[in-house]
Specification:
heterotrimer; A mainly alpha (306); B mainly alpha (247); C alpha/beta (238); A: two-stranded antiparallel ribbon; globular; C: 238 residues
Chain lengths: 306, 247, 238
């Protein structure tokens, strides 16, 4: 299925694409304002050209053995070099061009694709570096960032499809998730390798993670990561696992309401993939927590440095 | 190549080409929403919408067969899901996915093949999309092929220096070094692209750039455009209403 | 008549410590064409970037009577036009007309005026029909001409061309030479191409280690600095 899932039009249920399109509008406004504050319109060429770079970079094949090759998706790499806001803008521009010129991804589905890959994917990719990129965990945080950016985007896409009623038998799901995991790990490896190569050519290209991180923020984010990992684990063991966890933490009923309210007319969808919907919604929620953490963290660090 | 063909088609000169991009964008959105939200009598609905699109393509004097085939670019992804749906016992959804995604792609293609990208972007800007983002997309498109050619040269050069199929996992030192070589190539491409961006910025400053792009002209919305926007929006809506009233 | 460009004792060091310019003195009079010769890294391109304020070093740079200070830079950039080596980095707008109109628009002209100015400039360089085309589809020679048009549209007094013949084949070079001969502005040609310099300039200066080591006719400089071989070879190729 590939590392980057561009959802076409016609796949998602109306509540799903409509909500995500609505969410994407203020999100796009936000990243543009942040990117423009750091850069004025004079940096449009830089972002545009680096977007073209990402496109072109997909032509360079990374040998993975057993006769296959992989290639860069790029969200994390952009975040580590241009900063997360600029990276989000570039990814959004890439998605727009792909949808319009190459019909890779739908137009109504641009909102979901942008949220998955340009917003949440980039944030998830940047978070480890933001937290731990300054110390001895730098290499691991670069690798983790690359991995998470692809994994989170792909899982979100899968969740959106499942919530929309695209039935995926457990075996198919398993294979997809396995493929996504492999692509994600590959992205991590490629991202790390390219950053290292960049640093040996021209260190100024790679950012230093912002200073002023609080321990509390790190703990909360780490908690979110662990919750996500646990969530995926329970989801994969079956519906009972997540129900139990949910009952103990009071999450499950919440997640259920989250799904049934917009989908009251879509009983079929809900019934057939209930546990995946919950897992998907849970993961989506957790991914949003990531984003919130990052934003809060930035606000905190900005106040500190002032 | 796909985009080259679409670009060539977009430089045509039919009545459809001459329409204001905003009229075409609004008609496209209505079409997509009508299609995406439909659940009943999909096959009949799709047939009518297909006719609508084909008529538009004919009116735009575009090669019909070629356009219909090109919209199939969306099929590989969709076919996978059609198979999944079939296997999961939900063939109806599979058909729905196929029809909806193909027709949506054809509709988008119809607009993009009759509107040059700069005009399309200006239309999008005037209907509320963030200007900064659109300008980045325009620059991206402008330099897409320039950078891709550079990447191609680098790829060929690397391949001519030894092309086995071993890789990261297969063998040990050789595979890993080929992986690192590819990473090195990407890093070089990154640096070259970044350097080019700085060159572009210098060229902009040299010609008096002071922080904001100024454009040549706004678009003018004529009666013909308004007429098209209304009619082209009504057509799919009325068709769907008709289709759903039956039975 | 005062010189169009007067540079005195210009020094410049890059951030990484490389001393790029070591006290350069230079003058450009109206109507003349000067070739800047010298090996790669000798400081030629660094020097020309000081003429429109892209770089600022120590020493005095006066262009068209304006001292190189922040408040003068917009006016200076309107009077001296720089044509860079890589035309792809210079033609950054989606269409030819929009690109050539970029300069006039930045100078505050109305869209209609700017478009007219751009079309006139395209006529001057012989690319009148190219207005709606995308730069990507042009040949190297056509791109160079459009780049020059983009500068001419600003109505400058001085043209600076950095390695203009790099991507051009001999017919393209001849075409460029013919175009330049018809333009009345004073010109600076940064080039490696001795025959091109010889055919198109009144005099030359030779850059070496960030300073001007010699000045005079192109042939004299070529011979003096061991570029004789290149001159002989190109003479026999004609």
């Amino acid at each position: 299925m590939g590392a980057a899932v561009h959802i076409p039009d016609g796949f998602l249920a109306t509540p799903v694409w409509a909500t995500l399109d609505a969410a994407a509008v203020p999100a796009a406004g936000f990243i543009v304002r942040r990117a423009q504050r750091e850069f004025d319109e004079g940096k449009v060429p830089l972002l545009g050209v680096m977007g073209a770079f990402v496109f072109a970079a997909q032509m360079i094949n990374f040998p993975v053995g057993i006769g296959t090759t992989g290639h860069l998706v790029g969200g994390a790499l952009l975040a580590f070099t241009l900063g997360p806001a600029a990276a989000s803008v570039v990814m959004a521009a890439i998605l727009a061009i792909q949808a319009l010129i190459f019909q890779d991804g739908g137009i109504l589905a641009l909102g979901p694709n942008v949220v998955n890959m340009a917003i949440v994917g980039v944030l998830a990719g940047y978070l480890p570096f933001y937290l731990w990129g300054g110390g001895k965990w730098r290499k691991l945080s670069l690798f983790a960032g690359g991995t998470l950016s692809v994994l989170v985007s792909a899982v979100l896409a899968l969740a959106e499809l499942a919530i929309s009623g695209v039935k995926m038998p457990a075996s198919v799901l398993g294979v997809s998730l396995a493929l996504f995991l492999v692509s994600a790990l590959l992205e991590g490896a490629i991202t790390l390798a390219v950053i290292q190569a960049l640093e040996s050519i021209q260190p100024r290209f790679v950012r230093e993670p912002a200073a002023g991180r609080s321990f509390a923020l790190g703990a909360v984010s780490l908690g979110a990561v662990l919750l996500a990992a646990v969530g995926v684990l329970f989801a994969s063991t079956g519906p009972d696992g997540i129900e139990k966890l949910g009952r103990q933490a009071g999450i499950a009923s919440h997640a259920r309401t989250l799904i049934t309210t917009p989908l009251s007319g879509y009983k079929v969808a809900f019934l057939s993939s209930s546990w995946l919907s919950k897992a998907g919604a849970g993961l989506a929620g957790l991914a949003l927590i990531y984003g919130a953490c990052l934003l809060i963290g930035r606000a905190v660090s900005r106040n500190r440095s002032v | 190549m796909h985009h080259v063909v679409l670009e060539r088609w977009s430089r045509g000169n039919s009545a459809i080409h001459r329409l204001d991009p905003r009229a075409k964008i609004s008609a496209l959105l209505v079409f997509l929403v009508v299609l995406a939200t439909a659940h009943r009598n999909l096959v009949t609905l799709s047939a009518g919408l297909l006719m609508l699109l084909l008529a538009t393509l004919v009116g735009a004097r575009l090669p019909l067969a070629a356009a219909v085939v090109r919209a199939g670019i969306v099929l590989p992804f969709t076919v996978v899901f059609v198979c999944i749906c079939w296997w999961a016992g939900d063939p109806a959804r599979g058909i729905a996915l196929l029809l909806k995604s193909y027709l949506s792609a054809l509709a988008v293609m119809a607009v993009v093949s009759t509107t040059p990208l700069p005009a399309l972007m200006r239309g999008m800007e005037m209907t509320g999309s963030p200007r900064f983002l659109l300008m980045v997309a325009q620059f991206l498109y402008r330099y897409l092929f320039v950078i891709s050619e550079e990447a191609q040269h680098m790829s060929k050069a690397a391949a001519s220096r030894g092309a086995t199929s071993r890789g990261l996992i297969g063998s040990t030192s050789r595979g890993r070094s080929r992986f690192r070589a590819a990473a090195g190539a990407l890093a070089v491409l990154f640096a070259r692209s970044y350097g080019r961006a700085e060159d572009i910025h210098r060229a902009m400053l040299a010609r008096g750039f002071q922080g904001r792009f100024r454009t040549l002209g706004a678009l003018r919305f004529r009666t013909a455009d308004a007429l098209f926007a209304v009619l082209a929006s009504l057509a799919p809506i009325l068709w769907r209403v008709a289709v759903e009233k039956v039975r | 008549m005062p010189p169009l460009i007067e540079v005195r004792n210009l020094k410049f060091t890059y951030e990484d410590g490389t001393r790029a310019l070591n006290g350069v003195d230079f003058r450009l009079e109206a109507g003349e064409t000067v070739a800047l010769l010298g090996a790669n890294g000798s400081g030629k391109t660094t020097f020309v970037m000081h003429l429109n304020g892209l770089l600022q070093g120590e020493g005095s740079v006066v262009v068209c009577g304006l001292a190189m200070e922040k408040r003068n830079i917009p006016a200076i950039r309107a009077r001296i036009g720089l044509v860079f080596q890589d035309s792809d980095s210079q033609l950054f707008m989606p269409t030819v007309l929009e690109d050539v109109a970029f300069g006039p628009l930045n100078r505050g002209m109305s869209p209609a005026e700017a478009a007219a100015r751009a079309q006139a400039a395209l006529d001057t360089v012989g690319m009148a029909g190219a207005a709606g085309r995308a730069p990507y589809h042009l040949s190297a020679g056509e791109k160079k001409r459009v780049a020059i048009a983009g500068i001419l549209a600003m109505d400058p007094e001085i043209l600076v061309l950095d390695e203009p013949t790099t991507f051009l084949d001999p017919p393209g070079q001849r075409s460029l030479a013919a175009l330049l001969a018809n333009l009345p502005q004073a010109k600076i040609l940064v080039t490696h191409d001795i025959p091109f310099a010889q055919a198109n300039s009144n005099r030359a200066v030779f850059f070496q280690n960030g300073a001007i080591a010699a000045a005079g006719p192109v042939e004299d400089i070529a011979v003096r600095f061991g570029w004789e071989f290149a001159v002989e070879r190109s003479k026999s190729n004609r």
